[in-house]
């Protein structure tokens, strides 16, 4: 009986396990192997050469720091806005579900649309935004040229704020009312209640949103690819976009693999921090 | 629900008004670019090319949509998107629950270890798989083919985890009754377990479909000819391969956008719950 159960279970797991072996773990190993080689066909062994090259490569280092700034910008923006919106929408108000639905729409919209649309709107010469600013008598913008990184951060926040709002709303609903009643009895002010009841009790949600947010932002490819081409002057040259160019434009698969592995290590460390802190928070 | 609303009634005096103002402003900023996309899709070539953008077209050029399917192979992109997202969704609906069911209801050696192995794939981001899978598929001759678009996404740990959580709540008696009737294990899964899992399957299907419908990076990399492009990729190549006409690009965006918007409209409650539950990536 037990053996039959085990056999059935393995048969049921087989497709998934085979899939993960061939399309997750094999690529993971192959990427590591390729990272030890150099040349257009990635066939000359270079040991850790690609890794030492990466640490000394101003382009890679620059891309990494740009990506860190991008990740922090997106996460801070989405958290602050999402928290504000969640606190507001957690009140009794007409049209909550409608507002929440509207906020989520960009999150479900393809990044291809988001990128192209904003590039069109923000274009200094042919974009509609400058036309509107002009009509309002405001100075015209040239954000994509002057503040490319901040601009794609804002586009990403525009797309993601509904997601963080929904996560914070779920977190807020989990706070027992008792705490607020106790705070009210103590005569705590609104700000006090927010600062000492809402924020601490939302800490697990905030941690989850920040780490998940940073991890996914650090993998952003489409916005630089579609909106800024990493420019001007590499100011918005995000890391994965750089990996892409290294592999598929410059045909240096070995170096691109090493660059990928380095980012993977950073992401794994972030994931582990979240697991550790998250577990402590649960106790 | 009612309790949380009562509590939040007294945020501070006048909070309601300020709150409404903030939410309405942000929702307006959310909607305007998408509304402008619809406006762009209805503008004439003249309006697009004059270098003097307008907020709303003088005449609504619905024929842009005809041109999209006539002058540009957008119908082909549409079909490719349907095939890619559709087949991947069906694959998830088979492979995720069957693996989740094994983890939820069977006792076997290495169960915990294998579950950790499956979950660990959540930490392997796509950019790490991108280069080796590309090289592998180019050796197999799978680039620029449907199997090349589909195979990297046949199942995932999110779906398996979701199904395991859901199916652990299923009473064992149900499965045992099936066994007592002499039904085979596959038949039990298909006839007894899956029908019980409909709510979870709906969430899974919805998330998988929307994610793959919008998928950009892999189809961009894995396809190289016009007849294999999916909509998100074909759209971005308008400017390079076909036109520099933003009205057609916008029309294509609307065609890509509408199915997800309609799905979202009808399934908002599930989606919101799903987002809060697992975190859609």
Looking at the structure, the CATH topology of chain A is MetI-like fold
CATH class of the largest domain in chain B: Mainly Alpha
- Summed over residues and divided by their number, the pLDDT of chain B gives a mean of 88
CATH superfamily caption of chain A: MetI-like
State the CATH topology of the largest domain in chain B.
MetI-like fold
Number of helices of chain B: 15
What do the pLDDT scores of chain A average to?
91
Helicity of chain B, as a percent range: over 70%
Main beta-sheet strand count, sense and barrel state of chain B = none
How large is the count of helical segments of chain A? 13
Beta-strand proportion of chain A: under 5%
- Ends apart, CA distance between termini of chain B: 27 Å
Order of secondary-structure elements of chain B: HHHHHHHHHHHHHHH
Under CATH at level 1, the class of chain A stands as Mainly Alpha
Helix/strand/pairing class of chain A, anyone?
mainly alpha
Largest interface by Cβ-Cβ < 8 Å:
A-B, 99 and 100 residues
Short description:
The complex is a heterodimer of chains A (283) and B (281). By secondary structure, chain A is an all-alpha fold.
Give the topology, please:
The complex is a heterodimer of chains A (about 280) and B (about 280).
Chain A: H1 2-34, E1 37-38, E2 44-45, H2 49-56, H3 58-89, H4 96-104, H5 111-122, H6 128-135, H7 143-146, H8 148-173, H9 177-185, H10 190-217, H11 222-228, H12 239-249, H13 253-282
Antiparallel strand pairs in A: 1-2
Chain B: H1 2-8, H2 15-41, H3 45-49, H4 63-70, H5 74-105, H6 111-120, H7 126-140, H8 146-150, H9 157-168, H10 172-180, H11 185-196, H12 198-214, H13 217-222, H14 231-242, H15 246-278
Helix pairs in contact in B: 2-15, 4-15, 5-9, 5-12, 10-11, 12-15, 14-15
Main traits of this protein?
heterodimer; A: 283 residues; mainly alpha; two-stranded antiparallel sheet; 77% helix; B: 281 residues; MetI-like fold; 2 domains
